């Protein structure tokens, strides 16, 4: 399949996911429950995973995409097992809602979404490099100093997701913190744990990329998809929090997630403008 065809497929899946999210929000606000519909649930949870696979294969290569997903999923799984056992890594003891498909007592959706969230954060951070037309740090450029900064940024971007998501999931009863905590009944250590899991995954991967750089030929504009996905996720959380009258959470969550999205989108528009402006010059040069 040609790169342009792959990009079109990725965009089509993204648009389908938007439709599914819109339907879920609309039905929820009308007071109906659609979570129990197996087909809809598979679409709602499965489309982001499919999008993750295809997008990572395009931006990283098939081999590196698989490696990233396995690394993120297994790291998340191991940390969840440890967290369920003694509560240290995430700052307290917690239990998941019963009647879920699990892997070593960890819901399978949680394992997969560690990969989805970490990859989204990794791409969002990378988008700033792309919009400035900079390559990821690599051994040829001798810019190892940049790697730790990107890793920390990855961690902060992913933690922002959980700052918004965790209180909603606790309110809905999808998991329970047994000892509670100061942040909407959630221990602060939970967010430290999320930061650690993320920087372990992206740290290992970014250092691997640094010493083994590989350039993929593809339309870099698809980096905007994880950026938009991150923004839509924040708005989806905001609407859900509004339904539960968690107004303080809306302020905290949107303040944590949206500024990064807005900045990336603005830089993307600048990137597109520069690309479009350069195109006529290239065409004239070819004619000469």
TrEMBL record:
Short name of one Pfam family: Caroten_synth
Keywords: Membrane, Transmembrane, Transmembrane helix
InterPro entries: CruF-like (IPR007354)
Signal peptide: none
TM segment ranges: 12-32, 38-54, 66-84, 111-132, 144-165, 191-209, 221-241, 247-268
PANTHER family: SLL0814 PROTEIN
Protein name per its UniProtKB record: Carotenoid biosynthesis protein
Lineage per the UniProt record: Bacteria, Candidatus Woeseibacteriota
